[in-house]
Amino acid sequence: MWSVQPRAGRHFSWPTPNRSGPQFAEAVQRLSQQYSLAQTIHLVVDNLSTYSLKILVDHFGPEQGAALWKRFTVHCTPKHASWLNQAEIEISPLAQCLGKRRIPSLSFLKAECHAWNRRISRDRITIHWKFTRRDAHRVFHYQLNLFTRSQH
After folding, report:
1. 102-131: buried (b, 16+ CB within 10 Å) or exposed (e) per residue?
2. Which CB contacts under 8 angstroms, 24+ apart, belong to 53-60?
3. Can you tell me whether residue 76 is helix, strand or coil?
4. Cα–Cα distance for residue pair 127/52, rounded to 1 Å
C-alpha cells in the first residue's frame, strides 16, 4: 500500500503480498494514526472494491470500522485515469531505486521501503502537480464548472 502527502513531502509505503481488504484496513488505520489530529483525511484511491467501509467493518467490527471510515473523505480516480493517482507516481522512483535487483522476500522489500520512506520523508521530497482543471477539461472533455474546490 502506498500513500503520499504530495505538498508536505510525507511518504508511506507498506508492502504486502497482495492488495486484500484486511491489508487495506490496516493501511487506513496506520494513516489515521499518522494524522491523529486531523478531522478529515482526504484519501485518493483507484477503483478497487477493497477500498470500502465494508472492508473496515469486516476487519475492525461495526463501531471501530465506521468510526475509522468517517475520518476519511474518499476520492476515486477515474477508471481511465489511474495515472492521476499521485501514490502511483510515487512507485516510479522507488522502482528505480530498487533497480533490477531480485527482491528475495517480503521482509527484505519492507526493509528497503522503510529506508526509502525515511530518506524521502526526511528530505521532504514533494510532488509538484501540474495537471490543472483546464487540462482535465481538455483531456477528458469535462465541463469546467463540474469541478469545485474542497472546503477542507
Report:
1. eeeeeeeeeebbeebbeebbeeeeeeeeee
2. 55/21, 55/22, 55/24, 55/25, 56/25, 56/28, 58/21, 58/25, 59/21, 59/22, 59/25, 59/26, 60/25, 60/29
3. strand
4. 26
Q: What is the pTM of this model?
A: 0.68
**Residues 10-36: pLDDT tens digits?**
777 788 888 788 999 999 999 999 999
In angstroms, the CA 39 to CA 71 distance is 6
What gap in Å lies between CA 36 and CA 71, rounded to an integer? 10
Mind listing the pLDDT tens digit for each residue in 87-121?
Answer: 666 666 667 667 777 888 989 888 888 888 888 78
What amino acid occupies position 42?
Answer: H
SS3 content of the chain, % helix, strand, coil (to 5): 50, 10, 35
Radius of gyration of the chain (CA): 17
| Residue 149 grid coordinates | 474546490
Q: What percent of the chain has pLDDT over 70?
A: 76
Cell of 44: 485518493
